[in-house]
Hints:
The termini are far apart. It contains 1 helix and 9 strands; from the N terminus they run αβββββββββ. About 15% of the residues lie in helices and about 50% in strands.
Amino acid sequence: MNRLSNVRRIVSVAALAMFAATAHATPGIKVLSEAPNDGPIKYTVKMVSKSFGNEQETRTIRSGQTDDFTWQGTAPSGAQAVPDGCPGAASVPKSADGQAVRQVQIRFAPVVGDNGSANVQISFRAYAPKGTNKVTVGGKSLQCPVDNRLSQIVRFSMPTSTGSKKTVTLDDGTQLTVTASRK
């Protein structure tokens, strides 16, 4: 009986040792980020500009996609008519009643790398009339809006972890602040 007891003890110890070795063989789990790098990113673009006003937009996008949006509003100097005969009148953004309006178009394109950092490209196009100018076209005197335009592409890198923020300044002093949040 003593011998049977010793065998049971040895078998129990061997089974316990084998279980312990198996438990230690599995690697630990390491969390690298809040969401996969190709998952959706909620971002806010905030614009502060003397020429084009202050605006903010929050959207959701995945890495490798582009997002286009437009802000449109009353011109900073008030409503301005755009006579058809004005040079470049066809390219001036107008309201339904033909008044020149302030318009900002943004294309936002992030690509997130394996490290969770995004390479971002923003295409920025803006127009705002800035007063009027007397122009003579075909013998007629017209009051045409003075164009204030800006077109610029900026590229930068930023982390995509929740609360990450990056501010870039455009050539005219307009500031764009991008804030990221992982879903």
